[in-house]
């Protein structure tokens, strides 16, 4: 169907090129093209086909039994079908010659028929010849109409789909534009935040440089304070020796007061040294803290100078008493040593309640040479008791004892307490202050035996 249409269009195009008419039936188009080709060719001329076969048809015979129709269909059947269906190739020379012969025979036959037959018979004959062709073209026309309608529907569907696609694309473009505006506003905010952050970083850098300078100055001040503490410690040792040599030992109240003052000065020196080491090992010391330290040290220096004046006065008065014999001084020293008691301090949680009295009664059965004190911290854990140990160690000597009872409140069913770090801190305080420390292992629980396994674990680690 489409092939025939294309060929008709091709015929019309060729006729236009030759300047011929393009109107009329398909058969006329073919004949017109064929005649124009034969006329244009100098070597070809119309060939008259023999008319002997149609001329021999008797005139009296009926049209239906005429030899023309079967003869033409038998001898020229393929060419006739090709003419009706237009299934041929015009460029083929052989088909052109056959078509020319066939058309000549048809024209001569039609002339004879026109002379011999009536008008009605001619119409019936022509109708019978072209009936199938007409029906075929009607069917093709219906098919073409359906195809055209289908194509129109497809075109409409495509237009509608294209319209929908365009509408969706526009909506998507609008959405993207709105998102772009939102992103631009976000980017502007980010840029502003970035600028603020940069300014903040610059300010922090300047402050950091200031803090570094202040820290350097603070370190210098700390070095000076450390040197002053060392000088104070040396002077304390000197004044202790001077007191022991020159102060009259009969005035025990004076000696006791001097010992208390010296002990307080030692505690202050140790506290300052501890602060210096702690501040040096941790974060930089702020300027305000260093000023407070300077103030406290200034007060200590004032106290020290007052003490120095008192000692110098006592030194002047004690020189007069140096004329007494040495035997009295040695006896007084023995008496003082007898008066001084060994200190025993108990630091414990609630499990150390009333132990101070029991221990004091046991130690002082024969002579009251021990001074027992206890500091209880109910429901306290080991790590909360450890900071109190260093304060309690101050003022104690190598002859004194510190008893620690802690760790029971660290034991639970689901947690195994490891006392290693806490015990190590206790050992550090013992080595630092040269105090005899007794660490009591965690007592087993008779009221809750399920904890005894974890208690054994903690005691094993603490003892090793």
Automatic annotation (TrEMBL):
Domain of life where this protein originates: Eukaryota
Keywords: Coiled coil
InterPro entries per UniProt: SAP_dom, SAP_dom_sf
Residue ranges that the Swiss-Prot or TrEMBL entry lists as coiled coil: 134-242
Regions of compositional bias (Basic and acidic residues) in chain numbering: 312-326
Protein name: SAP domain-containing protein
Domain SAP, residue spans: 3-37
Stretches for region Disordered: 312-331
Organism encoding this protein: Cacopsylla melanoneura
Keyword Transcription: no
């Amino acid at each position: 169907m489409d092939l025939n249409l294309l060929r008709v269009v091709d015929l019309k195009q060729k006729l236009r090129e030759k300047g011929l008419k393009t109107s009329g039936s398909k058969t006329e188009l073919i004949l017109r093209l064929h005649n124009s080709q034969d006329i244009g060719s100098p070597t070809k001329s119309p060939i008259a086909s023999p008319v002997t076969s149609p001329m021999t048809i008797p005139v009296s015979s009926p049209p239906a039994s005429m030899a023309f129709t079967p003869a033409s269909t038998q001898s020229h059947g393929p060419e006739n079908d090709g003419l009706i269906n237009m299934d041929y190739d015009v460029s083929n020379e052989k088909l052109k010659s056959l078509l020319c012969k066939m058309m000549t025979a048809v024209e001569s036959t039609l002339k004879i028929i026109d002379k011999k037959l009536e008008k009605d018979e001619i119409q019936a004959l022509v109708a019978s010849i072209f009936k199938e062709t007409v029906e075929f073209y009607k069917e093709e026309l219906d098919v073409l109409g359906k195809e055209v309608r289908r194509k129109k529907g497809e075109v409409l569907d495509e237009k509608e789909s294209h319209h929908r696609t365009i509408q969706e694309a526009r909506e998507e473009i609008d959405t993207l534009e709105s998102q772009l505006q939102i992103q631009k506003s976000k980017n502007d905010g980010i840029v502003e935040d970035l600028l603020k952050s940069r300014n903040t970083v610059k300010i922090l850098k300047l402050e950091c440089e200031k803090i570094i300078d202040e820290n350097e100055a603070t370190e210098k001040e700390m070095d000076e304070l450390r040197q002053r503490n060392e000088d104070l410690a040396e002077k304390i040792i000197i004044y202790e020796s001077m007191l022991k040599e020159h102060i009259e030992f009969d005035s025990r109240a004076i000696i006791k007061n001097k010992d208390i003052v010296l002990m307080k000065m030692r505690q202050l020196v140790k506290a300052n040294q501890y602060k210096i080491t702690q501040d040096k090992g941790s974060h930089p010391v702020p300027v305000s803290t260093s000023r407070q330290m300077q103030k406290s040290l200034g007060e200590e220096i004032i106290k020290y100078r007052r003490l120095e004046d008192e000692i110098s006065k006592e030194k002047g008065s004690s020189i007069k008493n140096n004329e007494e014999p040495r035997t009295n001084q040695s006896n007084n020293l023995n008496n003082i040593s007898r008066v001084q008691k060994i200190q025993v301090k108990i630091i414990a949680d609630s499990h150390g309640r009333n132990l101070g009295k029991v221990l004091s009664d046991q130690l002082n059965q024969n002579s009251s040479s021990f001074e027992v004190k206890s500091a209880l911290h109910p429901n306290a854990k080991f790590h909360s008791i450890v900071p109190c140990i260093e304060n309690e160690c101050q003022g104690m000597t190598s002859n004194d004892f510190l008893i620690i009872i802690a760790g029971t409140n660290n034991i639970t069913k689901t947690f195994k307490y490891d006392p290693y770090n806490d015990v190590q801190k206790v050992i550090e305080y013992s080595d630092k202050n040269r105090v005899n420390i007794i660490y009591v292992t965690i007592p087993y629980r008779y009221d809750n035996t399920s904890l005894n396994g974890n208690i054994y674990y903690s005691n094993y680690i603490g003892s090793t």
